[in-house]
Structures are given as structure tokens and as C-alpha cells.
Amino acid sequence: MGSCFSAESRSPIPGSPSSPGLGIRKRKSSRKKLGSRNPSFDYRREEPLHRIPGRLFLNGSSEIASLFTQQGKKGTNQDAMIVWENFASRADTIFCGVFDGHGPYGHMVAKRVRDSLPLKLSSHWEVNITSEEVLREISINTAGSINSEDTSFVSADEEPRASADLEETEKFPEFFQTLKESFLKAFKVMDRELRMHATIDCFCSGTTAVTLIKQGQHLVIGNVGDSRAVLGTRDKDDSLVAMQLTVDLKPNLPAEAERIRKCKGRVFALHDEPEVARVWLPNYDSPGLAMARAFGDFCLKDFGLISVPDISYRRLTDKDEFIVLATDGIWDVLSNEEVVEIVASAPARSSAARSLVESAVRAWRRKYPTSKVDDCAVVCLFLDSNSNTNGISTSSTFKMKEQLTSVEGVNIGTEKGDDPSGPASLPRSGTVRTTSDEEIHPEESEDDASKLDDSNTDWSALEGVSRVNTLLTLPRFTPGKDDRKAAGARK
Prior knowledge:
Keywords: Hydrolase, Magnesium, Manganese, Metal-binding, Protein phosphatase. By secondary structure, the protein is α+β, with helices and mostly antiparallel strands. The protein has helices spanning 30-33, 39-46, 106-128, 132-142, 162-171, 174-196, 254-262, 328-331, 336-344, 352-367, 446-451, 481-490; strands at 55-56, 60-61, 65-70, 79-85, 93-102, 206-207, 209-215, 218-224, 228-234, 240-244, 266-268, 278-280, 287-289, 295-296, 310-315, 320-326, 376-382, 402-404.
């Protein structure tokens, strides 16, 4: 949730959600365009989506995963999450994701991506699986064998180059080659669907997405935005360490800023939060998006914002214990090392995600007592599911080292010569808003979340906001009132 900031109310930007002139005119043909390769797949699966065995999206746990989300103090919970076991009807295959919505309708965008993206990914994977024989033949002809390093990563650029593809074919398994293409296509189709969606206004609303597919020892991650994936693994001394698997794709990264500026977008930080770079329209001081990639946010898509995922691969080893996917409500107040230690020391795997969220909420109140607590969503995926489920770590040694991903080839978040670790996360802003310390109640269902209201919905940057406000010029969604406004605008 929350990367939007609001300066004072200005005249509506042409085509903004507050402008009755906003119209998405191509909706009639959208159903035909979506998932055109295998259109029956999405619509056959979407109706009974919530009843699919092994698909978890509410607070809870399974033998291999723990999920928990909690509403912050800014209004409706805009975070979403999912764990899908036996994904795409494949044994030993798991899909996980967390999604951090922002803008007036960010909660709708996050849930829509949570529900639709896995279907699109599975559909494109089915289509691309037929090319595996071709890839295998290419690999045999060029390399003789397929070999992948335990710690190897590769990042997919916006426009995959033939030479880079050839190198990846030689070095990485065909599982990654097939899934990489599937991720790129699925993310593209997902963003196109949001643009054409008949009921969700995504012009100034959007969401992050950090997603992964694990099959056996293979792990492929697709990331858009500033949610994060961190691995808890053992080093050579058998000490538990934190390894960051993704890069926070923020506008302060040189390659991201260069692309945005080439597209006439602007990147700068406000005086009262100089450490938070934001994306702005060429001629308006809005919307002030605090990330360089996102689903939705179509007001910025012509000015450098993209939804192309950063894709990486890792071959898991016996030393890898668990993966944590979380929104920035966690990372803004807890370090990677602290997150790994909290998960590892949880009394049971089933409560690991909840323990982490509760620790983050306490950290928010302790470190930033006058700031509004952000929404939090966590997925903990345990890689050794047959080990003791009552205790996560058998070692009392917590030697926490933050290890950023070593990216081979082209890293879309950095430039050659730059430090690839870079500013993977931004410190919080000093601008705050006073709030009370009432107990926050976790949501029990999506219906409950849609009914929640926040009495302080006057969301203005000049009054002070927390650093995680993603968009700076739009109010938060108020259930009921905003629905009626949106309905009136569409009429």
C-alpha cells in the first residue's frame, strides 16, 4: 500500500479519476484480446477461483507456507497475497506472490492482479512448454549440456537480446528459459487487461508484484515495484544469513531514472523527504509515484513507467531454508536480517508470517510513533517441508549477513559499473502524521476489508505523510463514498 503523496488539491488532470472525461473506450473488445493464445483457460478457471484446492489467499498456513496480512492506519487494506500449491496442475510446483496496491483503487488492482496473473502465467507456460524440445536441441548443439550454478541469477531486460538469450540458453536450464518467456508475456497481458478493465479505474491506481514459481530445486522470480523477496539460507559456517533475491525497482536507480527521463517523465524528491525519489508527469506535479515499475498507473505509462518484470533464476540447495515475500510495510521498518531472524525464531511455521507482521507493527509504533502504520502482507515459503514444523530453525546461531543478489548478465535495475546492490531500499521519510495507537485488527476476509473505513481520509502531503505513500496527489479510497463517485463518473 501507500506510495502516493498528495500535494494540495489542484484542477483535475485531464483523464484523471476525478475527471468525468475519463473514459476507457476499448472495453467491448477487451475480452477477445485477453489471453488470446488460450482464452478458454482464464474464463474456465476464474469463476470457481476461490475454491481451487491448494490456493491460499487469506490469513492462514499450509504444510509449506504461512500467510498473513494486516490493515494499517490509512484505510482499506491495499495489500494482497497468494500461495498456490500444485500450480498449473504440476506436482512439486508452487506459485507465490504479494501485491501492494496504491492510489484510490489500489486495493482493487492488487486483488485483480493476484487473481488473474497466475492464470495468465499458467496459460502462457502451457503454450511455451511445447518449445522445450527446441530449446533442448539448441542447448545440446551449442553447449553440449545444461549446467546451472547454485548461486546463479539472470535478469531479463525490457527487450531481450539475441546474444543474451543465447548465453542464457547455454548456461541456464530450459525450465528457466520457458518460464522467463511466460513471465514476460503474462505481465504484459495483465497490464493490458487492467488498461481495458470495465470496472477498475487504473489511471492513477496500481500495484507492485513480487512473484515466484518453485518447481523442485528450480526457483524463478518475477518482480515489479518495490515489494521484496529475501532468502533465509546457511553460510559455510552453518549460520543463518539473509540473501535479498530482488532489487527494489525505484526511480533512484540510474537505469530506471534514465529510461523515465528519456520518455519525458520527471524524477525528483520533495524537499521534506529528499531520500524518496518519485516519478512525475512532464507538466504536472503529480502523481509522485515512488516506484519505477508497476501494474496500472496508466497516467505514467507514456512517460517511462513500465510493467516489465525483473526476472531472476536460482537453483536451490539444501542450505536454503525459507523465502519471505513481503510488501514495503515490512521492509520500511525491518532489515532483511531482522526479518530472517524473526521468521526463523517463530514458535511454529504456521505462525511465522503473523509473527513477522506483528513485529513490524511494533517497530512502526516504536520508531515512528506519529506516523500512520502501513499495510503489511507476508508470505513465508518453507523449502524443507519435511523437517520439524513446530520449530523453524534448529540452530541457535543467527549470524545475519545481508547478501544482495549477484546478477549475471544485464540487470535492469542497475547500469554497468554501478554497484548492483545499490539503494535496494529507501529509508523512511521524516514527514509524519499523528495517529492514535488503537489496536489493529487483522482482516478475516476480503469482504471485511471492503467494509473498513478510516475516519481520517483527508490525505494531503502538506499535512505530513509516512514515507510509504506511493502516490502523492490522490486521496485514499473511502468505501461507499468513492464507489458512488466512480459510478457517477462512468455514467
